[in-house]
Amino acid sequence: MSFDWLKHYMPRGLYGRAALILVLPVAMLLAIMSFTFIQRHLEDVTQQMTGTVVREVRMVGDQVVGAETQQELIARVRPFLTSLNMKVRFPSPREVPEADGVRFFDYTGGVARDTLKQSLMAVRAIELLPDKTALIYLDSDLGPIELTISRRRLTPTAPHQLIVTMVFCGILMTAIASLYMRNQLRPITRLARAAKAFGRGQNVTYHPGGATEVREAGNAFIDMRARIERQIEQRTLMLSGVSHDLRTPLTRLKLGLSMLDEQDAEPLLEDVNEMQRLVDSFLDFSRGASEGEVEKLDPQSLITRIVEDAQRAGKPVTLLPPEGEGSAKLRPDSIRRALQNLIDNAVRYGSRAEVSVAFTPKSLRLRVEDDGPGIPPDQRGEALKPFARLDPSRNQNKGTGVGLGLAIVADIARAHGGTLRLGQSERLGGLCADIVIGR
C-alpha cells in the first residue's frame, strides 16, 4: 500500500517535521490513555456506584407494597432516609418531566442513567441538576415518587481531573522536548544557511556546533569551502596572469600592423582583434560571478539600460513589455555582463534579438531570444560547460570564439541562486535563454 499522498500534508521544514515527531506520539498516547480511562475506569466505577443506589431505591420501593396512602409510605421509609441521605416526596403529574435531564456531553451521567433504567423498570425519568443533585422519578400505585439524592453517589467526583493532568503533563513534556530539540536543530539550520549563501557567492561566518555528527558535517563544509575558494583564486590568478601577459604582445602587434599597408595589414589586424576578444573573454571568466555587491533594485530598469546601450552600439535588440512588476536582489554588474553575453550570442548567430522580463511571486525570469539556428536539445548541457565547442555549422562565418559566454552566464545565474535554461524560441524559432532567479 502506497502512502505517497501523505507527502502533500507533511511539513517541509526541519522544525515542522521535528514538531510533528514530538507532538504526534504524545497526542496519540494521550488519546489512547483517555479512551482507556473513560471506557474502563470511569464506566466501571460509575456502574458500581449506581448499582449501590439501585439497591437502596429497591429497598424504598419495597415499602410501597402494603402502603395504602402516601403518608403511610413516607412514615415507613422515614427511618431509612437519614442513613441513605435521601429525600422522598410525591410530585404532581405535571412536575414529572417527560424526558431525562442529562446533558449530551455528560458521559458519566449517561452511564448512570442507563444503569438505573436497566436495573429499575419503575424509573420514569432522571434529572441531573447543576447543583450536583440527582432526581429520580418512579412510578408506583400511589402515584409518581421523586427521590432526591446527591450526584456524588452516582458518579465519580471530577472525573476529568486525570485527563486534564495528562494533557498538562503532555504539554509540559512537549515544551521541554521542543526547547531541547530546537538547540539541536539550530546548528543544522545555520549550516544550511551558510551552504546556501556560499552557493550564491556569499561567504558568511560559520562556526560548527551541536551534536558530534553535525560538527563533523560543519567541519567538512568549512574544508570544502576553503578548497573551492583556493581553486577559484588559483583559476582567477592563472587566467588573469595569462590574459594580462598576452595584452603586451598584442599591443605591439597592433602598433607594428599600423605601420604596414592598410590592405596588407587588414587580415592580420582582424586576427589580432579576434585574439583580443579571446583575452577579454578569459578576463571576464577569471573575474568570476560574484562581481559587485548585492542590491535590491528594479530589474526592468536595469534591463532597459542594458538594451538601450546595445541599441546605441548598433545591435538589433528589442525590449518587450514586462510581465508583472516587482524588485529583486541582484548584482547589477554581473547581471549586465550576463545579459550582454546573451545578447552578443543572439545577434552573432541570428539577425535580431528580443529581451523580456517576467515576474512571478517566487521568481524572476530574464529571457533573450533570437532567430538563429539554436542549439539542439542533446547539446544544450554541453554548451554550458567552459571552453565547450559545438557543431562547426553553428559557428560558420561567425568566428570560433572560446566557449566561455554561456558558462559565464550560468555561473552568474548560480551565484544569484538561480539557473540558466536553454530552449527553443516559440516567437523567433532560434535559441531561448532564460535566467531564472528566486525572489
TrEMBL record:
Subcellular localization: Cell inner membrane
Membrane topology recorded in Swiss-Prot or TrEMBL: Multi-pass membrane protein
Keywords associated with the record: ATP-binding, Cell inner membrane, Cell membrane, Kinase, Membrane, Nucleotide-binding, Phosphoprotein, Transferase, Transmembrane, Transmembrane helix, Two-component regulatory system
Annotated PANTHER family: SENSOR HISTIDINE KINASE ENVZ (PTHR44936:SF5), SENSOR PROTEIN CREC (PTHR44936)
Primary location group: membrane
One of the record's GO molecular function terms: ATP binding
Keyword Cell cycle (UniProt): no
Residue ranges occupied by any HAMP domain in the UniProt entry: 182-233
Cross-referenced InterPro entries: 2C_sensor_his_kinase, HAMP_dom, HATPase_C_sf, HATPase_dom, His_kinase_dom, HisK_dim/P_dom, HisK_dim/P_sf, Sig_transdc_His_kin-like_C
Chain segments annotated as transmembrane: 14-38, 162-181
Reaction(s) this enzyme catalyzes, per UniProt: ATP + protein L-histidine = ADP + protein N-phospho-L-histidine
EC number: 2.7.13.3
Organism for this UniProt entry: Ruegeria spongiae
Name of the molecule in the record: histidine kinase
Top-level taxon of the source organism: Bacteria
Histidine kinase domain location: 241-439
SUPFAM superfamilies: ATPase domain of HSP90 chaperone/DNA topoisomerase II/histidine kinase, Homodimeric domain of signal transducing histidine kinase
